[in-house]
Amino acid sequence: xxxxxxxxxxxxAAVDRQVLRxxxxxxxxxxxxxxxxxxxxxxxPELDLGECPVGIFGKVIADPDTHQVRAGDRIEIYRPLLxxxxxxxxxRAAKAAEAKARNQ
Length: 104
Fold this sequence. Notes:
Belongs to the UPF0125 (RnfH) family. The chain is of the alpha+beta class. It contains three helices and five strands, in the order E-E-H-H-E-E-E-H. The chain starts with a strand and ends with a helix.
C-alpha cells in the first residue's frame, strides 16, 4: 500500500541569501527527517541539521525528532542571534539617558 504524501516548506535565511524549498514527504515524517530530506544541508554546509533550532510558523519546536509535520507546515531553520535583543535595548536606553544628562 502506498503511504500518503504531504507538501511542506523548509526555509532558511543566511546572512547573504534566503532559500525556500517545497518538499514532498510521507505523512508521519518528523520535522528532523523532513529537514534532512529537504537538501538544505547540501545548500548550506555550515548548518548542523541534527542540532540546529527549528520552528513551524514562528513557534519553536522543542523536540523535532518526534514532532510530525502536517500538510502545509513551514519549517523554519533558525541561526544564532548575533546580539541579545534585550541587551541591545538596555545599552541604547543607557546611551540615550547619558546623552540627555549631558544636554541638560
